[in-house]
Description:
The protein is mainly α. The chain has helices at 2-12, 39-65, 69-92. Helix 2 packs antiparallel against helix 3. The longest helix is centred in the middle third of the chain and has 27 residues, at 39-65.
Amino acid sequence: MSERIDDVVELYGPPVPDVEPDNIPHPKRHNLEPFRDSAKTRVLRFWLNIIFLVGAIIGLVVYFYTEEKELAYWIILGSCVFKFVELALRILKI
């Protein structure tokens, strides 16, 4: 039994001591790290997102309020290109 406990302690570390819930150390979260991209890239990503949102809304309006379904598909597809570019900039941290 003691060997199993030693194996667990070796793998996962010692048990957490009794501490108050407010004082428990938490691991650093990735989404709290500062931005690594430049200010120019942030501004570019902002405008690419605006173009995507406006294009998507226009595409939806054309789809639901006109008979031009194929035109709506092309508008939405074109706006998705802007989103993919923004996504690539975000993932590659350019």
